Amino acid sequence: MLLPDAPAALTRPFRRFLLALVLAPLALLAIGVPTRADKASQPIPADTLAKMAAKGTTPAAPILLRAYKRESEIELWKRDRSGRYVPIKTYPICRWSGQLGPKTRNGDRQVPEGFYTVAKSQMNPNSRYYLSFDIGYPNAYDRAHGATGSAIMVHGICSSMGCFAMTDQVAGELFALAREAFAGGQTAFQFQAFPFRMTAANMARHRTDPNIGFWRQLKEGSDRFEATGEEPVVGVTAGRYSFAPLKDPDKEAAAQALHRSESERIAGLVEEGAAAVRTTYSDGGQHAFWAHRISQGFPVGDISRPEALAYAGQEVVLIAARRKPAPPAAMPESLWAAVIGPGTPFYPHRAAYRAPYEGGPAPRFAAAARYSETLPTLLRLALDGETAPPAFAVPQSSVEIVAQR
């Protein structure tokens, strides 16, 4: 407090300081820069609202988020009027750290993988990284395996030590989406974190990875969501992810059918000779969208370990792809008839085999499964002395052959 007899010269700087304190927030509002007080209350962008309306949903409807490390993306899903979750928008991740695979200990820089729950209490409007929410690591599965660590966030600023770093603008939009869903009555939303998009092709390519057993568990949960559009009810049984059956028997049947089909598809890709790879990172990755924008000078804040991004997503081929030989082309019906029809050299041996279209196992020549295999088989057996060589007759004209049919 200034004394009454203080010189006027001493009060001028103090008056300017007080005036600056009063005018600074007003200036920020005038130029559109959000202050700490209102950044958490920013509206959902108009283009996102339009996408919601087009999919038959609203800002107050429940949300679900799905993250993919390999692709560096987070998907927004909203429940529509029918009760099914539908995709609304995909956001590029500016930075994530670590490797593909689950987080196991504090300080390993790993971004977690699994099924997590975000309640309203996990939202942080006063984050040092603009805005953030805690995804809920460690969950029951992580704790069952002795995993350590905490405070794994989706936040602003392009810097990660185990978090999903989204830049301030994207973090603000995700925060607004969660805020409106909570205001609409949702008590918590599910956050699904995957190493990559859980397609059959990706599962086949990573089949030799040490984490493949864990990823198969995530694949089951992903398939259930894809088949039904319902949030999977996730539990942990004997140290493994488990998923409660759906109340609707038709939806449960659809979930099981898709997972069975995907498992068969994976096995088929392996049988066909799909390559097996291991994807390695120096320290996490970044979406190509942000890499391009940053190269143009777009500000994203501090970028953690930018030198590591040059060595992100290096694929090491562990099993080279192989191509199975194409099956022999089928012999045209007209040629088939000309070879073994009545009056042809091989007609006496007609009873020794059947054409594929006749059905049933071949009585003698099981190897003769295709038209193109039959003639070579007969010739080889004749040369080996296992069957009498055919008696060659005078070739008939095609007109005569057709007439005898």
From TrEMBL:
Pathway: Cell wall biogenesis; peptidoglycan biosynthesis. GO terms for molecular function: carboxypeptidase activity; transferase activity. CDD domains: YkuD_like. The keyword Iron does not apply. One of its GO terms (biological process) is cell wall organization. The keyword Transferase applies. Residues 63-190 form the L,D-TPase catalytic domain. PROSITE patterns: LD_TPASE (PS52029). Keywords: Cell shape, Cell wall biogenesis/degradation, Peptidoglycan synthesis, Transferase. The active site is at residues 155, 163. Belongs to the YkuD family. This is Murein L,D-transpeptidase YafK. It comes from Methylorubrum salsuginis.
